[in-house]
Amino acid sequence: MFQPLSIFVGLRYSLAREHSFFVSFITWVSLLGVAVGVAALITVLSVMNGFEAELRGRLLSLSAHATLSSGGAALLDWQAQIARLRDAPGLSGAAPYIDTDAMLSRQSSMSGAIVRGIDPESEPKVSSIDDAMRDGKLSDLKPGSNRIILGRMLAYQLQVGAGDTVTVMIPGNTAGGSFAPRLQEFQVVGTFEVGLQEHDSVLALINLSDAEALRGLRGPTGIRLKFDDVLEAPRLSRLAATRLNPPLQVRDWTEENEAYFRAIRIEKTTTGLILMLIVAVAVFNIVATLVMVVNDKRTDIAILRTLGLSPKGVVAVFMTQGVLIGWIGTALGVGLGLLLALNVDVIVPFLETNLGFHIMDPDVYYISGIPSELHPPDVVRIALAALALTFVATVYPAIQASRTQPAEALRYE
């Protein structure tokens, strides 16, 4: 169907517009509409990917990629368990931990918190706590010293700083089974900040041995794991768990933060569909352009039919014209989208400086810049979707052109 003659005539109709200004104008509007829609989709999705990566990095800065736990019971042989995990595929670090729900108080100030017992030597293998420290050092958590490191917001809520003491209260039972909370005073030796409320306002760190004494345990309640590839953590964590006997419960970062990332996926999908409407509007313009061209070229179509061009050849002529608009628009959109997505860190500061405002005010938001992370599969999907829509837009006008009757069109010529 797409023989050289059909392609030649289709290209001729697309490029020769000296005497059809309005049709030419609509053609350019359609082309630019496709380009703007594709560029907007690529740029916006890249920015959303950047925010997702930034959120994931902050969530995992103090959270492991996966955890292995025994359901609250102490792991008496946790050193041996970690030794069995050392050669697990993709594993870069493992460390013991104890998480305890507690109430922290200082005079009249009180706040709920998660008190995490850690081993200061092995903790940096599974988290970036050292980079998040604002005061003090992780090595200040000496065994038996009853020292504690607080998130910055938690310390602010309790109105404490380095050198102050806080009381940690956890639920407990007496020998007779009645409720009797356990109280223990800890000295604040530092604060950390990762820029995420879920960590900064609820998390407190103490030495593993102090956590064992506080809970009355003889070992940690689980092992935290970190992998070379965070996206492969769900699969690799379950593979690593098969090395242990007895097996432990596995929970990865996608389960612990499922609500966050589900919300991001929904938002990305919704935003993509909304922005695709820009391309859809351009597609309707392509339909309108081709319909006007068909009406304008009825005589030419009739002459081509009398010279032997088949109806399929006529279809190919006008599909060539519509597809050319779509391809050029998509190519321009992909180029512009890549240019914007790869240079967001340059474009945004330039606009902020010259327009005198902050898109992400550092006094309000933890993330003061606009991150961007370009995913090639997203670009391919957007380009293919735009090409498919523009191809579909050519079908109806092309079929209508093929139904032109030569005798009817040439009756008054």
Give a written overview of the molecule:
This protein is α+β, with helices and mostly antiparallel strands and 413 residues long. The chain folds into 2 domains: 4-57 and 260-409, no CATH class; 66-256, no CATH class. Helices cover 53% and strands 17% of the residues. It is built from 15 helices and 10 strands. The protein has helices at 4-15, 21-59, 78-85, 129-132, 152-158, 197-200, 208-215, 233-241, 253-256, 258-296, 298-306, 311-342, 344-355, 376-402, 406-409, and strands at 66-69, 91-106, 109-118, 133-135, 147-151, 165-170, 182-192, 203-207, 222-227, 249-252. A 6-stranded mixed beta barrel has the order 2-3-8-5-7-6, surrounded by 4 helices. Strand 2 (91-106) and strand 3 (109-118) form a beta hairpin. Helix 2 packs across helix 12 (311-342), helix 2 (21-59) packs antiparallel against helix 14 and helix 10 (258-296) packs parallel to helix 14 (376-402). The radius of gyration is 32 Å and the shape is elongated.
Strand content: 15-25%
Oligomer: single chain
**Count of helical regions:** 15
**Strand element count:** 10
Measured on Cα atoms, how large is the radius of gyration?
A: 32 Å
Given helix and strand content, the structural type is alpha+beta
SSE arrangement, N to C: HHEHEEHEEHEEHEHEHEHHHHHHH
**Spatial arrangement of strands, main beta sheet:** 2-3-8-5-7-6
User: What's the mean pLDDT score?
Assistant: 79
The coarse silhouette is: elongated
Low-confidence stretches: none
What is the straight-line distance between the termini? 29 Å
